[in-house]
Amino acid sequence: MTFTIRPLDPLTDARLLHGWVTHPKATFWMMQDAGPADVERAYLDIAADEHHQAYLGLHDGEPAFLMERYDPAHRELVGLYEPEPGDVGMHFLVAPTDTPVHGFTRAVIIAVMRHLFEDPAVRRVVVEPDVRNAAVHALNEAVGFVPEREIQKPEKKALLSFCTRERFTAATGVAV
Confidence class of residue 11 from pLDDT cuts 50, 70 and 90? Predict the structure, then answer.
């Protein structure tokens, strides 16, 4: 599968994202009741934030997933764990589809992780999915994430997990 990742443009991509983040399968994205203007505003805020970036992932040139990268020393996890140099936080969301392709979501997370590890400063990827999101926990573990502990965030109880470059390569066979 061929994936490319480009910076998200909140003004042109918000309508597309609205359909993704409000879809019933995106319940853990916590934007179910957001209107198009809410989505645009949320991603304009991210675009203006030096510690948080959003990207659109394309599969064969077509929008297929959303990826966010953040600095956990400044966003999402402040005060909830002790960040280490080279830590980067990540969220991703695969676009909803009526015709799922077996292995597609795993291919997406591998593409996301490769993209993050292309930055030589990144030593470890940090995630904090909802503790109830069993599907993403299994997917994370399949690409090398190791759960550390449950944490209480303002909006959810989350499973704090980490993946080093070495664990990612060992789990996937993808050298980065």
Answer: very high
Residue type, position 1, single letter: M
Question: Do 34 and 42 contact (CB within 8 A), yes or no?
Answer: yes
Task: With H, G, I as helix, E, B as strand and everything else as coil, classify residue 17.
Answer: helix
Cα–Cα dist 31/45, whole Å:
15
* Region at 30 (left for phi over 0; alpha for psi -120 to 50; beta for the rest): left
Confidence class of residue 98 from pLDDT cuts 50, 70 and 90?
Answer: confident
Closest CA to 54 of 28, 85, 92: 92
**Residue 27 pLDDT grade (very low, low, confident, very high; cuts 50, 70, 90):** confident
Count Cβ atoms within 10 A of the Cβ of residue 129 and give its class: 0-12 exposed, 13-18 middle, 19 or more buried. Answer: buried
Residue 157 has pLDDT above 90, yes or no: yes
Distance CA 114, CA 137 (A): 19
Burial 32-50 (b: 16+ CB within 10 A, else e): eebeeeebbebbeebeeee
